[in-house]
Write a structure and sequence with these properties.
642 residues, alpha/beta, Molybdenum Cofactor Biosythetic Enzyme, Chain A, Molybdopterin biosynthesis moea protein, domain 2, Molybdopterin biosynthesis moeA protein, domain 3, 7-stranded mixed β-sheet, 17 helices, 37 strands, binds ligand LQZAQKY5, binds molybdate ion, molybdopterin molybdotransferase activity
Length: 642
């Protein structure tokens, strides 16, 4: 191994890195172009614009009624109504009409009485310019309508057209070239309809993700086909993009320290590296370089890292080049449901689910892995943990930047506890039946769910805790751990738990007893999960010592993770639900049918949101969908057990 492998240059703080980027490129000109006003929303005015026409362009009636000369109306009183001659002193007009010559006021039709075909009568005088929109009241021809760098909103389009400005000079959109790199990348367009990427290959998605972010930030993007891991070819692609006039280039992947991470070498050979390594996570290996004055960013390959690098460094540069101030996301004070530890020395962006539980807004951290795009698609917000902090919570409030509207957050039912695939169906059915409600579930195992209910940080918990003494589920745990917490228990489903083995069951596993066989490697679930309790119960029943099971100490956190371990060959067998085995085409040997319930805090039980959820649980559509997953039984679904 080379002793000098691609070590980051001195790491910069995010603020420092951003300053370096903005100082170096913030004044790069974008150029200007002229566009039709009607198509100009989202653009930025490149020059001040002055009105060609006034608005209104004439004195206009502001109400339906009669136009008069105010002088002729003076003296009118309910006791002494005044008559005016139609066509001489009183002229019928509608809103927007040009005022007839000699008139300077409008009397609303409601205040006008008809005397005969030639006369009307009024009981109050009009004052001059009453109910008239005077010429130029809104916009005066020759005056400046907008200064330069005005962002053009739909409102502005209205004003520009009214002022006779049918086309406008705007800043060119930042042109951003996006070049994905990596020999493992597969272009989705080249994948046959039934073809899956070969092991080791992954679908190239970041360039489209970045392209969409570029467009949302007011730019256009030019995507390059994926380039293999080759300094020369990557360098050529960047050079061509710069020569063709890109305002900036995003080189995606290969930004860190791997043997095939070529971004740094490429950019060093062709230009000057300004930043390599930012003390933020995700996004640490981000590079900022200059190629003949054009900014080129080495974007990390992990999707969440690439998003953070974009939002924290690239987007601010685009915004600055467009002469705009950075937009701030709305924020909310939230209480973490448990401590979120963080590494000293890096600013961490923790993606969180947020829910309103009673008076409190609680935040639960999603997985931290920067490779997990769902950690941001699922997120309601982001908590920034500063570089000098070792973590936040669980007691104090912290600030979360919101990724969703606050109203959506307060309409979310927060489920914390054991995971079951039917919760996903429940979330979908809830959406189908009450579009404004959503359900968010975090998976911390059954005991974790009970504790979350106890601490008041969720509305409900999914739980399947077996009482070894009685063979019953959940009730004894509630008595023991939540003696003082008023709760209800709703039966959700019965589900088959069993041994998940590779297709064809090559090791001929028939039951729990086989776990003790020397050549069988097991994958376990974490302590406190209902599945782990079930396993330990069966082992005790069978008088088996956990120490005899190879892999007993290796733990995964979800049914799907257990199934994935079996699929990958990391283990020969695991205990989990039928649906997980089915999803990955694995074989399943039923062991037990267990009870999975929802434990609902009494305080939330009668809320409209929870009642809507109960209605969904009791619907035949939900039960049918559950049944079609396989391995589930819904005869008692919806029953109130407590
Ligand atoms: N020894 C070290 N390894 C790593 C370090 C480190 O400091 N030392 N940093 C880690 C961090 S932090 C990050 S973030 C990642 C990202 O680094 P790279 O920019 O070099 O990314 P790649 O290795 O090229 O790819 C990572 C991952 O993302 C996938 N990828 C890449 N491009 C795309 C794309 N266009 N579309 C979809 N997915 C893409 C790629 O296949 C990999 O799976 O490095 C850590 N490693
Ligand atoms: O800092 Mo890297 O960008 O997670 O994950």
């Amino acid at each position: 191994m080379s002793p000098k492998r691609n070590i980051y240059l001195q790491m910069k703080s995010l603020a420092e890195a951003r300053r370096i980027v903005l100082d170096a490129f913030g004044d790069n000109p974008l150029g200007t172009e002229t566009v039709a006003t009607a198509d100009a929303v989202g653009r930025v005015l490149a020059a001040p614009v002055t009105a060609r026409f006034s608005s209104p362009g004439y004195h206009a009636a502001a109400m339906d009624g009669i136009a008069v000369n105010a002088k002729h109306t003076f003296g009118a009183h309910p006791d002494r109504p005044k008559q005016l001659a139609v066509g001489r002193e009183a002229f019928p007009v509608n809103t927007g009409h040009l005022l007839p010559p000699g008139t300077d006021a409008v009397i609303m039709i409601e205040h006008v009485q008809t005397v005969d075909a030639e006369h009307i009568q009024i009981e109050a005088p009009a004052y001059p310019w009453q109910h008239v929109r005077k010429m130029g009241e809104d916009i005066v021809a020759t005056e400046m309508l907008f200064a330069r760098l005005q962002p053009i909103t739909p409102y502005c389009v209205g004003a520009l057209l009214a002022a006779g400005l049918f086309e406008v000079p705007v800043l060119a959109r930042p042109r951003v070239a996006v070049i994905p790199t990596g020999a493992e990348l597969v272009d989705w367009q080249r994948l046959g309809p039934t073809e899956a990427p070969a092991p080791g290959c992954i679908i190239e998605s970041n360039s489209y993700l970045l392209g969409a972010l570029v467009q949302a930030a007011g730019g256009t993007f030019q995507r390059h086909d994926p380039v293999g891991d080759d300094v020369q070819r990557i360098g050529d692609a960047v050079a061509v993009a710069v020569a063709e006039g890109a305002h900036m280039v995003l080189l995606v992947g290969g930004s860190s320290a791997g043997s095939e991470d070529f971004a740094r070498a490429t950019l060093e050979a062709r230009g000057e590296i300004l930043v390599h390594g930012v003390t933020m996570m995700p996004g640490k290996p981000t590079i900022a370089a200059s190629l003949a004055g054009t900014p080129v960013f080495g974007m990390p390959g992990y999707p969440v890292s690439t998003i953070m690098a974009f939002e924290q460094l690239v987007q601010p540069l685009m915004t600055r080049m467009l002469g705009q101030l950075p937009e701030q996301r709305p924020t909310m004070q939230v209480v973490p449901t448990r401590k979120m530890a963080s590494k000293l020395g890096v600013e961490e962006f923790v993606r969180v689910k947020i829910g309103q539980v009673g008076e409190r807004r609680v935040a639960t951290a999603l997985p931290r892995g920067a490779g997990q795009i769902t950690s941001i698609t699922e997120a309601d917000g982001i908590i920034r943990i500063p570089a000098n902090s070792e973590g936040v919570g669980p007691d104090g409030a912290v600030t979360a930047e919101l990724l969703k509207p606050a109203a959506a957050i307060s309409n979310t039912i927060v489920v914390v506890g054991s995971h079951d695939n039917t919760l996903d169906l429940l979330a979908d059915e809830l959406r189908a039946q009450s579009a404004h409600l959503s359900l968010s579930s975090s998976h911390v195992g059954s005991m974790g769910g009970l504790m979350a209910v106890k601490r008041g940080v969720c509305h409900m918990a999914g739980t399947h805790l077996l009482d070894e003494a009685t063979g019953s589920y959940n009730l004894s745990y509630i008595q023991r751990y939540l003696p003082d917490v008023p709760v209800r228990l709703v039966h959700l489903v019965m589900r088959d738990q069993g041994l998940i083995v590779p297709a064809g069951n090559p090791k001929g596993i028939k039951g729990i007893e086989d776990l003790a066989r020397e050549e069988v490697r097991f994958i376990n679930r974490q302590g406190g999960s209902g599945t782990r309790i079930l396993l330990d119960y069966r082992l005790k029943q069978l008088d088996m010592d956990p120490a005899t099971i190879a892999g007993y100490a290796t733990e995964e956190f979800t049914h799907m993770a257990v199934a994935a371990a079996v699929l990958s060959g990391a283990a020969d067998v695991g205990l989990g639900i039928h649906a997980a085995a089915r999803a990955l085409g694995l074989d399943f040997i039923p062991v037990v049918t267990e009870q999975y319930d929802l434990l609902v805090t009494q305080a939330h039980f009668d809320t409209p949101a929870v009642q809507s959820l109960l209605a969904v649980i009791n619907s035949s559509r939900f039960k049918q969908r559950v049944a079609s997953l396989g391995g589930y039984h819904t005869e008692r679904t919806g029953e109130l057990l407590l």
